[in-house]
Every structure is written in C-alpha cells, then in structure tokens.
Fold this sequence. Notes:
With about 250 residues, chain A is α/β, with parallel strands linked by helices. Helix content of chain A is about 35%, strand content about 25%. The model of chain A has no long low-confidence stretch (mean pLDDT about 90). The interface of A and B includes residues 91 and 165 of A.
Amino acid sequence: MTVTSLLQVRDLSKAFGGVQALNLVNFDLEQGELLGVIGPNGSGKTTLVNLITGFVKCSRGTVNYKGRDITRWAPHRIVCLGIARTFQMVRPFYQLPAYKNMIIPLYSPRVKKLAGGRYGSRDAVALDLLEEVGFERDSHVAYKVASVLPQGYLKRLELAKAIALKPDLLILDELFSGLSLAEVASIVPIIEKLRQQGKTVIMIEHRLKELFRIADRVIVLNYGIKIADGVPSEVMESDDVKKAYLGTEV
Amino acid sequence: MKKRKERIDRGIKARSSDIFALCSWKEMLYLSGPRLLPIIGFLLLPPFLGGYWQRVMLSVAVFALLAISWDILAQSGMVSLGQALFFGMGAYSAGVLNHYLGLSPFVTIPAAAILGALICTILLLPVLRLRGIYFSMVTLIIPIMLVRIIEASKIFGGTEGLSGLSSLPSRWVELYVAVIALLCALFGFRRMLASDFGLVLRGLNDSDRSVTNAGINIYRIKIQALLLSSAIGAFAGALMTHVYMFVGMPVFALDYSILPIAAAVVGGPGTLAGATLGACLLVPLSEVLRGIGGLRIVFYGLFLVIFIVALPEGIFHFIQRRYHQFDRWVEVDK
C-alpha cells in the first residue's frame, strides 16, 4: 500500500444470494490518475462502483479514501468526502428543467462548505456548469424539463451534476454508452480538462477505443474477479482478457 | 382597421418560470390577480355568509389545510393515506393540554401543532425508508391502531373522549384563525416549494438515489418534510378540538384521510393551490348534496369521477393553463 494513494480497495467482495458479483478485488488509485475499469457484461463493474460509493454494502473487504476507512459509510457521507459518481442509467429529476436539476447537488453540504456560505445565485452557477459540459448558453436547452431532453444531453447533465459537487474523485459509470461518436468526441475534452484540474477519475466503459485514449491504467474484471491491471496496451495483450472478451475455442 | 389576436401576457417577458419583467399596472394585475383572489375571497366572504355557511367555510379551510399537508408529502415522494393521523394527533394533543393542564386554546393550538408533528414524525421515522404503496399502507394503518389502543386502554376518556374543553372566544375568531392559517400555509409553503429546499423535496419524488448521490441525507430532508406536513395537519386537528369543545376517537376517522386526497387530486396535485381549490369545491358540494338524502354519496362519487376523468391534470392546472392562454383582439398599426 502506497502512502500517497487516494483510494485503496482491499479484498472487496459482494455476493447477491448465490451470485458472487465481486470477489476479492484489490487496487490502489493515485491522485490525478485516470483508471479505466472494463470487462464483459455482468463482470461486476457497476457493483464495484456501488460498493465504493456506499450504495451497496460489501460482504467483505475495505475501501480506504484519503486514509479513512469508508467501507460502511452512507452514500451521502461519501459524497461529502469528495467522491462523486454518475449512474449508468441516467437519473435526472425528470420534472425539473435541466438548470434546476443542478440546484440539488449545489444545495449539498459539501458545496456549501467549500463555498464557505458564499455561493451567490445557484441558478447562475448551474448555468455556468451546464455550459461547461456542452449546453449551449444561447439556446433554450438548459431551460427545458429533463423529461424532454435527448440521451446525449441527459448524459451531459449527469456529468454536470457530478462536477457540481467539486469532487476529488469522479466515478463515471458508462458515460459514453448510448452516445454517438461525435457526442463522445465532444465529451472527451471535458474529461481531459477535469484531469488537468487535478481530478482523479475512474471510468467504467465498454467504448474501449475512446477509453484507452485517455486512461493511464486499466483494470479488467471478469465474473467479479480482477484478471488484469496495467497500462491499456499491455492489458489488451493479456490472454485472460482476450479470453474474457472473445471466449475460448470450442 | 385590421385586428389580430394577441396573448394577454405578451407584454410580460418571462425569462424562466419565476422571473418576470413587468412594465405596467395591467401586467402586474395579470400576475397578482390570481394570487389576490383567494386572499380577498377568504378574508371578505365570511361577513356575507350565514352561520351555517360560515361553518362550511371553516370546514373548507380545515380540509384545505389537510390537503396542503398531503400535497407537501406527496411532492416529497411520500404518498400518505393517513392524514387522519396528523389531524387526530393534533386534536388529542390540544384536548389533553386543555383538559389536564387547563391551558388556553391560544396556547394549546400552536403547542399541539408542534407536539402533534413531533409525535407523528417519531411514529413514522421507522418507515421513512419505505416508498410508494408500502409507505401509504403504514400511514393508513397507524390511525386505525391508535383508535383501538384508545378504546382498549381507555386513556384520554376512552370511547367517550374528552368533553367540555375550552372554546375560542367567538365563531369569528374560529373562522379567521382557520382562514389566516390556510392563507399562510398556502403562500408560505408555495414559496418553500419554489425555493432550493423545495427543489430537493421534489427531487425526492423523482429519484431519491439521485438526491443521495448529490451528498444530501434524504432521511433528514424527509423528516423535515414530515414535520412540516404533520404540523399543518395537527394544527387543523387542534383547532377543530376547540371548535367542537370535544376530542374523541372520531378524529382518526377515514374521512380526514380520504377527503384531503380527493381535494388534492381533483384540484391538481403539486401546487398546493390545487389542493385548496379542490377543498373549496368538494366540501361545499358535499353540503349542497345533503338535501338529496341517501343518494348523496352516489352523486358525490359521480362528481369525483367526472372531475378526474375530464380533467386528470386537476382543475387548478387546467385553469392556470387557460389563464395563460387568454388572448384579446388588438388593432394592427398601419
């Protein structure tokens, strides 16, 4: 275990009844690193995120963040410590306009604390954040209720809600899924900009080409077990990874 | 001279749903009119009503308070079937404070609103994790359980209740306390729902996981919503205890749970004004139908079905939409 690691995951395991969704997963994450998590469907990627963020309680193992054991913390406390996430299936507040969706994370105790009580107009901050993720300032898209927004905008809104929390560690769960190549290409610079700001990022992705362009390191899960960990080019050469993705000859 | 149709709100440039640029008295009246109407109506109407209809108006205010209380909870994702719990807890709290401690109604009513709200919140704390029909079922069951507990243990007068309680100084005080409380609740809580805290409450209705993911303790927010909602219901119950000068098991009756829901649904949920409008229609309707005897419930039910089928969005939303669509003929400059 390195002293400087931002996040340390040790022997993390989760069983849902008889299904072992995650089994003894270990990894460290350094400050400013972008870690990709890949694996076939059902390999335990989202379970891993749910365990780190406290939405699901683990059966075994520990999660340490900035030297604190956060294994059994409630999700809102974990967010307040600086870990924000997006959901694989977007979860906007459908009845609210896009910019009003942003008010809810801006209302969080973490943002209030970081702003020292001087956050000014939340509406103005919300519109600035939406512009950062690609909501055009001159258009009316930010004022439309979330229920009528297309998938691309909903994904951007999900990202903006996470960024609004000023996280140190940002976990993006399949942010690119359901997006066109052009939409992905427009989101990648946003993630790169976040990294330049010193944010640490975990990205769960199936869009490997785009992920490998920006990831420093990748871990591969299969049936809940970590089968590879390393730089993208090395990981994809691993026989276990090829087998997991392509299967074995019959 | 050529003429064309123009929306009457054309001069008002709306930047968003709550920011307006007003340029004339006419435009100010356009916006303030619908807000002034209930204030003027509720405050000026009582002197023109007879004693019986003043009582009906008191019932309107009480059921409107219960409907507002229901609407706040529903907005926060907690659909309650037990407003009678809040009403009854407030009623009993006021009765007990007055009967055993001899406190004046002006003390017991606010004290019972707070005490009743605290007790209701504590009772519902263990079920705040429940959502949808599961939460609803528990809220429905608790008042029924309380009735049986009072009956079996004979506490607070048992089946006979507590009678001979102090009344308010006059029927005018009773009516205006109810009306002013209703107006304060209506405008105060509408403002609250439009605030950032209100957005968080509405967010809970959409996705409580997303609210949690925003770093907000949803149980704390739900407790706050429950406290506010139950305080309104308990206030209504406490007031009625001193109006009737009696409190007994009927305060937990199903009427106090069902009619507020009907009022909110018919009027239009989500605005509080809809809940008030619903109570203003349903309570007097119930009184008017009294004249036809046994078939009253049939006609009352029929009206409810017609309202819900014809205007599923609620009467208030329909009127609001039509109001903003009003247009007038204007001369076109040549």
